Amino acid sequence: MKKVVILGSTGSVGRNALGVIAKNKDAFKVVGLAAHKNVKLLARQAKRFKPRLLALGDDSQYNNLKHELKKPQKILKGAEGIQEIASMPEADIILVAISGTSGILPVISAIKAKKQIALANKESIVSAGEIIMSMARSRRVEIIPVDSEHNSIFQCIKEEKKRDINKIFLMGTGGPLKDVSKSIFNKLKASRILAHPVWRMGKKISVDSATMMNKGLEVIEASHLFGMEVSMIKVLLHPEAIIHSMVELTDGNIIANLFYPDMRIPISYALNYPRRIPSKLPKINFSKIKNISFQMPNNKKFPALELCYKAARRRGTYPACLNSANEEAVKLYLKGKISFTGIVSTVKKVLSRHKNIVAPSLDEILYVDKWAKEEVKRSC
User: Fold this and answer.
1) How far apart are CA 266 and CA 220, in angstroms?
2) Residue 197: which residues within 8 A CB-CB, separation 6 or more?
3) Domain limits for position 238
4) Of 152, 173, 174, 312, which cross-links 178 as Cys (Cβ 3.0–4.6 Å)?
């Protein structure tokens, strides 16, 4: 029985993970749950799964959580509490499903404690990938990607030698605006921007999918996770979302990973790794697939993608600056303070003011994270 800690248990990935665990009670035991401020849902999860520890990122909600729980329960508070629960001695695997750069320090805590990590937080790898992956290698810590694309690549290259890999195709649906004219982007309501054609996700990642910033961040993440030059990673649009990633080998063979677009499938793989267990999750019915199509992304329409490639090539703190500036700009968009196209233009503006640190320490990355977010606020 694997003992599991879920960081971000009240978010989309966290909820789906608990759904997978609930259907495999003999395989998993939840020992820790952490959330930012959704105390009502966290309390319900605690009552159902009975973890030994809870952690709450927002200190101000501590008393509210105690009230919701009714019975005494040990609750860790703040960023330090999240880091502590990420390194619980009895835990076998830590699912990191926190959104944003707040996932960096918990990931590092889990690595230091030599815990297996199921990673659903791309921002930590985008911003601090060299540090995190180096630490993981030196401590022989396995990081299993949860995002559908990286989970697929992980499976495709598992038995392949690195020298035999020629190219990685990172797939994307194109998001909710693929077939919408750029001229009307700023006229669309936020509800239209958030309406992804395939996946049901949190607001931040939904906006990132609409700008295609998400796919660009995934390119940077893939380069770190799989030790590949960014030039070897290509984005390909596949609206049907049946093929989730492909790997081209030097002899011309291409390995693809296909599954029904349901996040519980890669979550289940990551939690069970290296085993596979039978499931009743949806399977692909090939007789019902009428079309499988591919398109190249339109970089003029979605400039965020090329912006990410440029940041990845410059390395250093450019990816951290880009990621943090985008994180803050998306918040401002969702609050109605900037336009939709203003997200990427604001990120560009902040990047133009950034002074790159070529081989940054963790403290320098965290400083850039804070600086970029403040610079976005000053720009808007």
Assistant:
1) 20
2) 173, 175, 176, 239
3) 157-260+283-314
4) 174
